[in-house]
Amino acid sequence: MAHPTGPKFSATSYDFESYIDCPNLIGGEWTMATDGGEMPIVNPRHGAVMGNVTMSDAGDVDRAVAAAKAAFPGWRATPMKERVQVLYRLKQIMEDNLEELIWLLSHENGKLYGESRGEVLKGIECIEMGISIPNMIAGGQLDVSRGVNCRVVYEPLGVCAGITPFNFPTMVPLWMIPQVLVAGNTFVLKPSEKVPYGAVKLGHMLKEAGLPDGVFNIVQGGRAAVEGLCANPDIKAIGFVGSTRVAKIVYERGAESTKRVVALGGAKNHLILVNDANFELSTTNIPASAFGCAGQRCMAASALVVVGDCQKHVDEIVRVTQQIKLGETLGAVIDDEAVARMTRYIDEAEKLGAKVLVDGRGKKGPGAGSWFGPTILDNVSPDMPAGCEEIFGPVLSIIRVDSLDEALRIENANPYGNASAIFTSDGETARYAVERMSAGMCGVNIGVPVPREPFAFGGWNDSKYGHGDLTGFDGLRFWTRPRKVTTKWARQSDQTWMG
Question: Read out DSSP for 455-492?
Fold first, then answer.
């Protein structure tokens, strides 16, 4: 009997293990890219190659889209309540194979075990959201006048595509897949070429769960595959998560070919700390936000705006940060290029007058891979690159101001708008700040204000291009088009101007 998650990954610790080469999934068949190109998949903790990923071109994309297009009529005709049964089975398969999925995620991404576990469980929660959709849309009708009834039907778009990043290889695809499939669409997923194993596992599990061939397809690769997805005229909608630079390109190119696009980009999230903030809550939550997942998440705190005298809080944040141990409480970063980028930002900030309170440069973890220690910069100005640009690593920049209004001006002036939070014990201060933050996701005494399902994830400004969000009920709206049906079966004897 075939293993429900495909070839078994047998690791149960951080010790290095090699794995399979990653193919495409097109029309139910696992195949390599036509031109035979491939790229090594490197375990970030060890710097060792786990396998190779096939690198597809536009021709491979077109074949995957053709397979999805061919599967669409049959899947669309399948009643929604039957489509959802696939997700019930997928959830069970993931839960039955939880440990394998956790360890594989840790090995391909560099996350700690606990962080990987949280990601897989959050992915399962996204599946649960998809399972609930039939009940959420039931009863969407109303008698609007005498003998006249209106209802809304959410119709699938057709072939849809997702382009997902390296930092959450299991969870982010599951932001999209449940709503896409429940709505009756077919799907082509292009995962990050740095972390392709999570997508391959999802492909095997969906097949085991009974999803018909061609409904879910995977195209591995890099830029050529992304450009192929943007250009293919049969793709009706694209969901993207990644850097702001690429998000803008995907949005523009998708729009040129009349696709529906939501492209989530980068962030420079500001946490505002005032001196009445709960001491224990703020001094544990802020470093957890900045350094969790090695700072490689778009919700990480990267700028701490300190209002007035909060020195005792800062001293404790520094102390907590100094206790972090590479490989035990902080994972590896994705690759050596990321290490070099973070080093440049800190070197530059130091030259510009910032003070390095905790220095992560040159720190090494237990493996021979890509490591960077937690770093805190003080006296950063908002115009320094470390104060206004996304570093995407375990680096926290402290900006000091005299007033809450000054802190809000700095937050508002930043081009991003993903997340922002305030730490305070005063309700009026919290309300005042949240109403004035220029961010799509705001927190009060929460350093990572991620909305949980059914609430949708999405930022503002340069953190998102397009309309709507990908997760929650907004996700269903994005991957469908509403058909409004108005019916009347007989002339009413008591009709008025409204009937």
Answer: SPP--EETTEEESS-SSHHHHHHHTEEEEEEEEE-S--
Return all residues near 264 (Cβ < 8 A) that are at least 6 apart.
240, 241, 242, 247, 298, 457, 458, 459, 463, 464, 470
Show the domains of the chain with their CATH numbers: 24-265+463-484 (3.40.605.10), 269-444 (3.40.309.10)
- In tens, the pLDDT along 202-220 reads 999 999 999 999 999 999 9
| 230, 293, 298, 442: the active-site residue | 298
* Strand pairing report for 159-163 and 235-241: parallel
- Strands 395-401, 375-378: pairing is parallel
Which pairs count as long-range contacts for 37-40, CB under 8 Å and 24+ apart, including other chains? 39/193, 39/222
Phi then psi dihedrals of residue 390, to 5 deg = -75, 120
Q: With 0-12 CB in 10 A as exposed, 13-18 as middle and 19+ as buried, what is 139?
A: exposed
Tokens of 113: 């075990």
Tell me: the pLDDT tens digits for 297-356?
999 999 999 999 999 999 999 999 999 999 999 999 999 999 999 999 999 999 999 999
Question: Is the pLDDT at 35 greater than 80, yes or no?
Answer: yes
Question: pLDDT band at 498, cuts 50/70/90?
Answer: low
Alpha-helical regions (H) of 197-324: 197-208, 223-231, 244-256, 279-291, 311-322
Backbone φ and ψ for 230, nearest 5 degrees, come out as -65, -30
Backbone angles phi, psi at 296, to 5 degrees: -95, 60
Residue 230 designated active-site:
no
Give the strand pairing for 416-417 and 38-43: unpaired
pLDDT digits (tens, 9 = 90+) for 439-478: 999 999 999 999 988 899 999 999 999 988 999 999 999 9
Distance CA 285, CA 290 (A): 9
Neighbours of 306 (CB within 10 A): 21
- For 42, 50, 116, 419, the CA distances from 458, given in Å and listed in that order, are 30, 33, 22, 9
Three-class DSSP category at 96? helix
Task: Give the pLDDT score at 499.
Answer: 57
Annotate 23-90 with three-state secondary structure: CEEECCEEECCCCCCEEEEEECCCCEEEEEEECCCHHHHHHHHHHHHHHHHHHHHCCHHHHHHHHHHH
As a whole number of angstroms, the distance between CA 368 and CA 460 comes to 38
Going by the DSSP 8-state scheme, the letter that residue 209 receives in this structure is: T
DSSP 270: E
Q: Closest Cα to residue 270, out of 432, 460, 405, 442? A: 442
- Can you give 142-206 as a three-state secondary structure string? EEEECCEEEEEEEEECCEEEEECCCCCCCHHHHHHHHHHHHCCCEEEEECCCCCCHHHHHHHHHH
